[in-house]
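Q: What would this chain look like folded?
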Amino acid sequence: MPSSLNVQYASKNAVRVATRIFAGAVVLFTANGCLATRSWVQDQLNPITNQLGQQESRLNDTNAKLQNLHLEKKLVLDSRGPTFAFGSGALTPNAKREIDGFVQDLDEGSPNNSQPASASGRLFVVAGYTDSVGAEDYNYELGQRRAEKVAGYLVGKEGVDPTQVRVVSYGATKPVADNGTSRGRRSNRRVEILVYQEKIAS
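A: My prediction, written as structure tokens:
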């Protein structure tokens, strides 16, 4: 009888030990799964984090240069024109007409009409914006593409010195209207050309 009790006790101990080992294995397996998932998520986020870091660096650089400048003129190209096709960076004929008129107004308002506005020491900041539809990284990239197309047109067609042009993308981070409505989203899909001149020292 005592030996039977010992066998039962040993058997219960073995079951307890096996249960603990099994529970430990489950915890370890689950933890490894979490670590693997965490590693995969981090791998997916790294390119986006790097892209946002580069974008922030460009914005800081542009903002530093703007400290000694004042805004002279601004043009907003948005999809009400229309100026861009949905999801595209290509300029429409309407967008090109708007840019042509804008630069012509700058030339006419230039203090020295013999010298075009594009060569007058101005700084052209071309900023791309999107609505909130789509992924954040896609919106930054689309805003950048659109701004680059406008900048390319300023340089190639209007003769602006490329060293006078800065291109930035804000993606969907700076809406001017409600992204919950189609009209608001149209207003948020835009490229702004901001023309700066050096501040006159008093």
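The first helix runs from residue 2 to 66.
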